[in-house]
Amino acid sequence: MSNNQLYNQLLQTVLAERPELAQYAELFTAQDSSEDSDDKELKLRLRKITVLAKRLKQDLDDALGDLDDLAQALGACEECWGRDNRCPTCRGEGSPGYFKSDKVLFEELIRPALSKATWLEVQEK
Ligand SMILES: [Zn+2]
Predict the structure, then answer these.
(1) Contacts (Cβ under 8 Å, ≥6 apart) of 84
(2) Share of the chain residues as helix, strand and coil, in percent rounded to the nearest 5
(3) Whole-angstrom Cα distance, residue 94 to residue 88?
(4) pLDDT tens digits for 79-121?
(5) Long-range CB contacts (within 8 A, 24+) of 106-109
(6) What separation in Å is there between the alpha carbon of 69 and the centre of ligand 1?
(7) 52 and 65 in contact (C-beta within 8 Å)?
(8) Measured in angstroms, how far is the CA atom of residue 125 from the centroid of ligand 1?
(9) Distance of CA 121 from the midpoint of ligand 1 (Å)
(10) How far, in Å, from the CA of 48 to the mean position of ligand 1?
(11) CB–CB of 106/67 below 8 Å?
């Protein structure tokens, strides 16, 4: 079995475990060296990779923005969630509840979930 075949077999195994990565499979499929020397092919692949990289960056930025909103809603440190003793913002103390929570974000993100958590016993002050 050639290295390309082994590589493609590994790729298929990864895709079976992570089907959400299927849209990127083409980028990582091993090519014959004769195809790699084709400038048009390389330019096309580079263009596709660039578009996908921009899309992934946008998805990452969106997810990080959502995570910041969630941290604010919970009163947690946006930088480390209280997991880093060297954090300049909270020195590792910023787990949920450490900071005053953002009321608007709490009402938007947390209260709807609490109201549907029938298993939760809420003690009102
Ligand atoms: Zn922190």
Answers:
(1) 92
(2) 65, 0, 35
(3) 11
(4) 999 999 999 999 999 999 999 999 999 999 999 999 999 998 8
(5) 106/73, 106/74, 108/73, 109/69, 109/70, 109/73
(6) 15
(7) no
(8) 28
(9) 29
(10) 37
(11) no
Whether the Cβ atoms of residue 52 and residue 28 lie closer than 8 Å to each other: no
Output b/e per residue, 51-74; b: 16+ Cβ within 10 A: eeeeeeeeeeeeeeeeeebbbbbb
Expressed in angstroms and rounded, the spacing between residue 88 Cα and the centre of ligand 1 is 7
> Residue 30's pLDDT band (boundaries 50, 70, 90)?
low
DSSP, res 100:
P
- Cα of 28 from ligand 1 centre, angstroms: 36
Distance, in Å, from the CA atom of 14 to the CA atom of 10, rounded to the nearest integer, reads: 6
Separation of alpha carbons 88 and 80, rounded Å: 10
Gap from CA of 73 to ligand 1 centroid (Å): 15
Q: Which residue has the tokens 């992570």?
A: 18
CB hemisphere CA count around 57 (13 angstroms):
6
